[in-house]
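ok here's Transport permease protein, seq below lol
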Amino acid sequence: MSTATMGFSRGHVEVLMFLRDRTAVIFTFAFPAMLLLLFGTIFGDQYTDAGVSASNVFSASMIAYGILSTAFVTMGAGLAMDREDGTLKRLHGTPITATSYVLGKLILVFALSVAEVILLVGVGALVFDMPLPDASHWLTFTWLFLLSVITCSLLGMAVSGIVKHARTAGAILNVPVVALQFISGVFIYPVTQLPSWLINVAAIFPVKWMAQGFRYVFLPDVMKDQEPAGQWELGRIALVLGAWCVIGLVLCLLTFRWSRDK
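and the structure came out like this:
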């Protein structure tokens, strides 16, 4: 079979295995939605200077968190588990290639990210009356979503190389996830409330640009005044996420191994 065929076959297996773990299904999807409900309810009666409710702002920003937690953590923890329980080592003895295995994982992460985003957008629209964007913004949403998923997946795969034991993967991977949410304008908005040096640190990482991009998609154009640069910077968002895709790919090539002893 071709690499693509083996990859799609592996992806089908990955999705089935995930769906059979009800605990993983519930917590993967429920946690970001629960946070959105909490933040949206607590701060829902507050409005920005542009007249947009805080719940709508959180609804747009939390999409970035949903993708990061789903793609980064799922990929990193899944790869660490496969390496520790010998799944990767056994697969290495079959015709499947590393590219096919990674493609299978990407299919799983893509499917989960689509479902997560649908859930978060649904909560934002149905619970907090977040307006859905027009056709041109959906086009931006498409490339932003794809770049975000690829970036987070590759980085999760790369970071899994430093995870010594699968049981600690969740704790290790969630540390940067939670920290980046606070400094990137997901849990704290507007991000200009933070010290300027912290904003500059957040600008190095992809989460800040992901959240900013999704706010462009779902919020009125006047909200760009609330961003650190006073504009949406779509070109810069694409460049930063594209650069992190390349960085993530290079790190994956350097760190990927079939077993813990290699």
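fwiw Residues 148 and 210 are 7 Å apart (CA to CA). kinda neat tbh
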